[in-house]
Structure formats: structure tokens, C-alpha cells
Design a protein that fits this description.
single chain; about 200 residues; mainly alpha; two-stranded antiparallel sheet; two-stranded parallel sheet; 4 strands; about 60% helix; globular
Length: about 200
């Protein structure tokens, strides 16, 4: 049932976002050039690695330059690599629109644990043995950890929310998580517009 809802909602969201996605794509090409999309390896259901899509928000070649860094150093260097338009896309979360294609392809669900890079997954699974349980379900465009964690930064806390979703997932919980995410994204989008207008 959740897979059917994924297909229905992802198709609807893609159609609704088309009038916004096309101008964004043109702006990205004019300001940053090719490639239009960021394609990153992520760990999916059952440990299968897939290619996750996003609108590109960093300068070309940033992925290679950022590769050796983790934690606060990675955050600092990522900010330095972020393009002007990319910063706004991230603030409004519009850079994640292309992940709807990942949902339609079956790589992801609309709701589930956020997908993680293979390298980071191995490190976290070594520290948190229960981290492997995230692979029972497809990774999500949004999830419990994103709508409930607030300012929490502990990976153990995020994992607890992910495991709660896995244990209790249902159509009702799925719809409630999507609705909560929708309100948050709308708020971030409006704040992004206000910030950009200053």
C-alpha cells in the first residue's frame, strides 16, 4: 500500500512542481552550467547502492575537494563551495525535487530513513550495530528523524526515530509525516523567499 501511495504522490508532486522546476533548471544552467544534477551514491534497501538525484548546489568538482573531510570541517568547506543559487535551493529544500524520480524508480520512498553515503554508513554501522536495521525499508525523502528531531545532533537519537518509523509504519503515520513535512517545507520556502528579497 505504501508503495502505491509513493507512486501516486510522487507523480502528483512532480507535476505540481514542474512550473517551478523548469525555471530553476534554466537558472542553474545560466549561473552554474552543467551538470544540472548532483548524482550521489547512497545505501538503499537491503544494502543496495543507488544513485540519488538533487539539483546541483555546489561548484563543479566540489565533491572531490570535499571528499577527505568530515564533521564541522566538512560543513565549513561545504558552505564555501555552495553557489549563490545553491544556498537558496538548500534553504528552501527545492534542491531535493529530483529525488521524486528516485521514488518513482523504487530507489526511495517518500517517507523513511534518510539515505546515507556508503562510507558514512559503514562508519555508523560500526559504532551503532542497530544502524543496519535501517536497511529493512527504503530510504525516504523525508522521515521521522527529520520532522521530530528539532535541534538534536546525535546520530543515536536520529536512529531511534528511524527505528520507531520502521516498527510502527502505517498509512496513517505515512500521511501524517508527509503533512508535517509539507508544513515545514512551506515555512522554509517562505523564509527563503523573504531572505532572498532582502
Amino acid at each position: 500500500m505504501l508503495r502505491t501511495l509513493d507512486v501516486i504522490f510522487a507523480t502528483a508532486f512532480l507535476l505540481v512542481s514542474l512550473p517551478l522546476s523548469l525555471p530553476l533548471a534554466v537558472l542553474l544552467l545560466l549561473t552554474s552550467g552543467w551538470p544540472l544534477f548532483y548524482r550521489g551514491a547512497r545505501v538503499g534497501r537491503g544494502g543496495r547502492v543507488f544513485e540519488m538525484l538533487k539539483f546541483r548546489t555546489l561548484r563543479r568538482g566540489a565533491e572531490e575537494r570535499l571528499g577527505p573531510y568530515l564533521g564541522e570541517e566538512l560543513v565549513r568547506r561545504t558552505e564555501a563551495e555552495t553557489t549563490a543559487l545553491g544556498g537558496w535551493l538548500r534553504a528552501t529544500q527545492l534542491d531535493e525535487i529530483p529525488q521524486l524520480w528516485n521514488v518513482l524508480r523504487g530507489d526511495m520512498s517518500l517517507v523513511g530513513p534518510r539515505p546515507i553515503r556508503p562510507r558514512f554508513f559503514e562508519e555508523l554501522a560500526a559504532d551503532l550495530p542497530a544502524y543496519w536495521q535501517r536497511l529493512v525499508v527504503p530510504p525516504g525523502l523525508t522521515g521521522f528523524a527529520q520532522v521530530r528531531r528539532g535541534y538534536e545532533t546525535s546520530m543515536a537519537e536520529k536512529l531511534a526515530h528511524d527505528l520507531e518509523w520502521i516498527a510502527d509504519r502505517s498509512v496513517r503515520l505515512y500521511l501524517r509525516t508527509l503533512a508535517t513535512t509539507g508544513w515545514r517545507v512551506l515555512g522554509q520556502f517562505l523564509r527563503g523567499l523573504v531572505g532572498r528579497g532582502r
